[in-house]
Amino acid sequence: MVVIRLLASRLIAFAAVALIFAPAEVSARTDPTITGSFSSPTALASLQRRLMRLANAVPGAIALSVVDLRRGTTFNINGDDDLPAASTIKIPVMVEVLRQVTVGKFSLGRTVSLQNRDRDWGYGSLCDAPSGRPYSVRDLLWLMITRSDNTATNMLIRLVGRHRINQTMIDLGLDQTRLGDIIHSDGDVRELRTSANDMMHLLSMIAQRRVINAGACDFMLEMMLAQRHNTLLPVGLPKDVPIAHKTGTLHDTLNDVGVVELDGSPYIICVLTTHLRDLDFGERFIRQASRLTFRSFLGLLSAEGVDGDGSQRQ
Is position 311 within any domain? Predict the structure, then answer.
């Protein structure tokens, strides 16, 4: 069973990550084959039908993938469709940065100076900082993931190389995840691409500590748990359920992908929506899909005689 381990404090986390990082090979995709349906149990088969009805009612393109991390079953709707990644592409950037830290190319304390070409005013405040100001890789990672800062992301892409990020995603078996360019909100941001299944597989590998090494995965999960944009997947779920996730938004696109650490039954849900007439349609769908999925996994635990905290009922 996958369990997200919360570190005692951010300072301790940084020290722990620095100590535990050690060179490791990138893991290839070995997750369960996508079959398009849950083979069992009934609660998850019912979830599949309800999600499909919801998706059919949305005026736009919808892709959704769910994986039960405990039982290894999966379900997807249009899971292999190539869609705009928006800011969910920052998860692959994070993976490549930490891969290069692990192999010793630079440390989390390495500083990167802001250049004018890095600036993007779509999300984040770093774009207004003076040129030449240095920032540590550690701080840029936190800004990129928790605040979705585009300028911080561009600085990290410049550091590790866009083509290297794309190659690592290919090595991991993610065929549709790629950066066609750095992030420019006023440019062709549709050059940032992924699929719901790609994101599901990448998050599965992180949750199962199969990317880089366990310390790197713990650090990535900690940053995603500290996400400041929490108006999609977390809405309607209990406040005490940890959700390590990353959102993405364009003018007609709304995405959220994450690991929901429900005790006894952790799962991953990845939802991509695009070609929306109004972002409200995407927001409503992602929230409804998240609530339905959570309730189904709770129902599954109840049917197995397991309480929400993962303990077996007597």
Answer: no
